[in-house]
Amino acid sequence: MSIRGGIVGFSPVLAAVLFLLTVDHGEAIWLTIPPTGGTKCVSEEIQSNVVVLADYYVVDEHSPENTPAISSKVTSPYGNNLHHQDNVTHGQFAFTTQETGNYLACFWVDSTHHPQANPLTLGIDWKIGIAAKDWDSGVELQLRRLDGLVQSIRENINYIKDREAEMREVSETTNSRVAWFSIMSLGVCLCVAGSQILYLKRYFHKKKLI
Fold it and tell me: Where are the transmembrane segments (predicted)?
């Protein structure tokens, strides 16, 4: 997760492990929101068809008995609005991703209607993938969790293979274009050299130098 302010050359197994560490996880983070209308955002690159849950809440250390409100907005990689709330001290959002890319969650204080002298602290409990599922205790449920884990690894490996195939296709297309450009450049050079030789021969014959 990045605060606003890829995988290249990995084996499928290593990529799957990194996927579990970075995508299917639950993460609690803290943000400091400026009191003068500034905005703080967090972003996460998520694959399609992944469950996302988040719970956020305002903590005001300077005035805990009068917690100020904030506004929040979550958008998809294509700019679709997935969640938007105004004037809340606590909120939740949940969705299943429809596209692969960076999902952005932004939080801010409306300084016009709620002027603040001090910055606010915002806690976010962000859960993605397997971490977003409600697992209870028990051997059967643990087996179900492991089955979900294996399924996530399989889906991630397929995703990496697809990306690798796309990159290979782009690389082959680029190499082909470079090769054709090199051939055309060589042909132009040969044509220019040939025309210069013919021009010099005619010039020397005309001047009776050869």
Answer: 178-200
